[in-house]
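Re: the request from the purification team.
They wanted to know what the chain is likely to look like in 3D before they choose a buffer screen. I agreed to run a prediction and write the result into the notebook, where they can find it.
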Amino acid sequence: MAVYTDIASEIYAPGKGTVPAGVNIQTGRNGPVSLTRVEITRQGLARPAGRYSLLELPSLAVVDGRNELYVNAVAGEIASMLPACGTVLAVGVGNRRVTADALGPRTADGVLVTRGLDPGGELGLREVCRVSPGASGETGVPLAQLLMGLVRAVHPAAVVCIDSLRTAEPARLGRSVQVSDTGLCPTVPKSSRCVTRAMLGVPVIALGVPTLMEADEAVGRPGLMVVPAQLDSVVKNGAGLLSLALNKALQKRLSIAELCYLAN
């Protein structure tokens, strides 16, 4: 039985065999936050070419989403992949009615919308807009098609898609964050959530937390999905952390306290 993972560092990690040519891995730590960066420089491998940053934290079920160390760590990785200027469209991907899939919409709820609020840039705010399209089964329109229309209307410099991810490692459920510049490229076959730069014509940054894992044959229950303990808290705190980190990456002149006040 195949086990799918969206986490690049789970595919290219010690004990997973020889790292192929074209894959570079760097690791580091800042207190309780460990960071693994995977750069894939050629196509044809298990994940699309691009940069992947995985931050491993204490369980998001108990983490304070306003903790400056965690917020700044995630914000730094997001900022490193965004264009320096221009409008950013934040997209909350998923179904808010299903807790394990609600991370994207709930994160988007906390993104500070500034489009139209700072004409001429007098306040130094970067222009940001947000949308949560809902599951394609609800709208009848694939995610990529919806975003193509929005991109034509808004002309963003980049799109940031926030989504729940799958992991193959139980220890990462609800306690890690992945940021990548490859767009949304789910490993699940025939996923309707694939959104890339080639589709939209602008950079697509993907941001997410693993909230699902497929149980393997060792469990004896093929098709069984595993979620983190305290899933509600993981999604609530994870959405708070990701929205604040994205706000910080986009509005660098504002403090975390100011961002918390404005976003609420």
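For the purification team: The radius of gyration is 18 Å.
Please add any questions underneath this entry.
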